[in-house]
Amino acid sequence: MFDTVRGCFGNRKICARWVPRELSSAHLESRFGASPDFLTRYNEKDNDLISQIVTCDETWIHYNNPESKRESMQWKHTTSWRIRKFKQTLSVKKMMAFVFWDCRGVLLIDFLPYGTSVNSELYCDQLRKLRMAIKNHR
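Now predict its structure.
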């Protein structure tokens, strides 16, 4: 008998795991080659390397802050009309935020000015700000 969950040969249907992006073979080789260097430096420097690593992430921040269903609760009589809560769509207005952090916490949060495109000049400016933030934190 055919089982919809297991299939006719005992196979199961599973979902693919979502990953941010597929790395090219050149990037994979670069990361694979850098791994022994990091491990060697980690072992030689009394584990100080981990505290030196700074990570960055970029994220879009939308202008509106939608009210949750619980926040929209109101006192009503049992015979009153029921309140309807519509699902809100994200605002068209948004800005990009750059967040830099290390093992101790956030070092820098910087926002991309509206209408500015991301280019090498912007990244150089971000790295200058990050350098000053690291000096202030450490």
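Strands lie at 55-62, 94-102, 105-111.
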